[in-house]
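WARN no homologs supplied; continuing
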Amino acid sequence: MINFLLGGLSGMAGTCVVHPMDVIKNRMQMHKGKVSVLSIIGTVYNEEGITSFYSGLTAGLVRQATYTTVRLGIYNQMQDFWRQKHIGRPSFAVLAFMAGTAGAVGAFVGTPADVALVRMTTDGRLPVEQRRNYRNVFDAFVRIAREEGVFTLWRGSMATIGRAIVVNVSQLATYSQVKHLIASQTNVKEGLGLHFGASMVSGFVTAFNSMPFDITKTRIQNMKSTGKLPGMISVMASIAKNEGIRSLWKGFWPTYCRIGPHTVLTLVINEQLMHLYRIYFQQ
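OK structure emitted
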């Protein structure tokens, strides 16, 4: 249980810092055409005010309380189980399996908050008469279920799960492997410096690998309910065909500026919390 609790707290702490980059990233991904980070920042600030950079924060926190709680909890629990049954550390393939499994389960649990997050962070770019104006994440849940059906809360779940598998293999498995390599090759001791270095590498790999899935998920979750929605592959192919293959990485730098620090904060805070827990509660 402690693995789940500390995982959720770590993710929520990271989100409080990087949420504005989530807003900018989602706005860029909804923009069909070339657009720069600075133009998005200027538009949001001039038209909606500085507080708009924290629009959808409640959804972001609930997403972390569900998605990150489950994914980090399961991943750490699976590692603990491995240590009890085996001698030595798991291979990268085993770590990837653990991370992918944890990410898939966490993504399914967290999809409703993810749908609300995408809609709330992109609402300001719509014409005034088309805005949904959700008051908070719980208002979003109720209105989506009432106006569009309960299953809409899991819209884009396949894209979300696909992205989560890529993200968690790239983030968690890479973090564990890079941390081991740094420690074994450079004799860096367990501590904040090691955690920071491994999480920075992990954050870059995660941002690059997840971008095509992320922009696809964002587009699907923001669609109006007009019958059967297109699948993940067809949306991804449509973006590449109509907007160019590089559009699948649109918003990469704000994504990295979000995922990089969030990865660092989440994993470092999680490591520190686990360390404190072992010192004060497991002795």
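The chain has a mean pLDDT of 88.
OK
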